[in-house]
Amino acid sequence: MTSSVPRTEADDPREAGAEDATSLPGTALVEDSRRVLVHLLQGPFLDGRREPARYAQLLRDRAGIEARLADLFLELVVDDDAQVAFARQSESDPDAPKLLRRLTGLNRLDSVLLLVLRQMLLTQSSRGQRTVVSEAEIQQALAAYRRTTSTDEAGFAKEVRAAIAKIQRAGLLDEQGDDYEVSPVLRLMIGPDTAREFIALYRQAGVGGLEDPADDAEGTDGAAEDV
After folding, report:
1. What residues contact residue 40 under an 8 Å CB cut-off, 6+ apart?
2. Is the link from the previous residue into 184 a cis peptide, with omega within 30 of 0?
3. Backbone angles phi, psi at 34, to 5 degrees
4. 171: closest CA among 161, 185, 160?
5. What is the pTM of this model?
6. How far apart are CA 57 and CA 18, in angstroms?
7. pLDDT in tens, 134-179
């Protein structure tokens, strides 16, 4: 049943002024902020380029959203330049219960792929470009790893495709026709220190072609180094 009573701006929070989009301290989050909160919890991240309205709401009501995340032992990471944001476990209390369990079940090839994609991301983003790669480019980048693990080229190519699919399901690769765009959030999720640790392990196993991270301090705002 519909009502014939005209709706006013006050009746619809989506049509209210900007001040109505911000939650008051000690009160429940406004509806749009609750939607942002759920999106962050569902993961893997919020992309402001694809969802500018939701990202704008995050920035408007950041304090309120951060407070709700803190109640769950989580913290918010935001990269304004890349317009991406995600929630991660807070490191302030190592004994806190873990709520987020993402990117689990990665094998060594999956991890190497993440490092390779991160290198590609850093190279392209430093030129102000989107990072778009083809499966052939990924296969070529991982060729050095194949030589240390298998002589079965066709079988290894199948493993690489499975790794690509896994990273794609995690939201870190977006299919663009025959290519894939690497999400800029990958730079935050795998910080320089973590990348160096993995690269050192792979070098010990004889894997070459993985370069030491060289993130610019001003490009990371310090966020990546805390992941």
Report:
1. 46, 65, 69, 76, 85, 86, 87
2. no
3. -65, -40
4. 185
5. 0.58
6. 9
7. 999 999 888 877 766 666 788 888 999 999 998 888 888 888 888 9
Of 44, 107, 49, which is closest to residue 77 (Cα–Cα)?
Answer: 44
Q: Residues near 193 by Cβ (< 8 Å), separated by ≥ 6?
A: 225
Measured distance CA(80)–CA(19) in Å, rounded: 22
Q: What region does 206 belong to: left with phi over 0, alpha with psi -120 to 50, or beta?
A: left
Instruction: Name the residue with tokens 């999720």.
Output: 189
DSSP three-state, residue 63:
helix
**Helix, strand, coil percent content, the chain, rounded in steps of 5:** 50, 10, 40
190-202 pLDDT tens trace: 777 767 776 676 6
Residues 6+ positions from 225 with CB-CB distance below 8 Å: 191, 192, 193, 215
Q: Please provide the DSSP assignment of 125-158 as one string.
A: HTTT---EEEHHHHHHHTHHHHHHH-S-HHHHHH
The type of residue at 73 is F
Where in 25-169 does DSSP place strands (E)?
46-47, 74-79, 84-89, 132-134
Strands 179-182 and 173-176: antiparallel
Residues in the chain: 227
- For residue 136, the one-letter residue type is A
Instruction: Compute φ and ψ for 141, nearest 5 degrees.
Output: -65, -30
- Tokens for 59? 């920035």
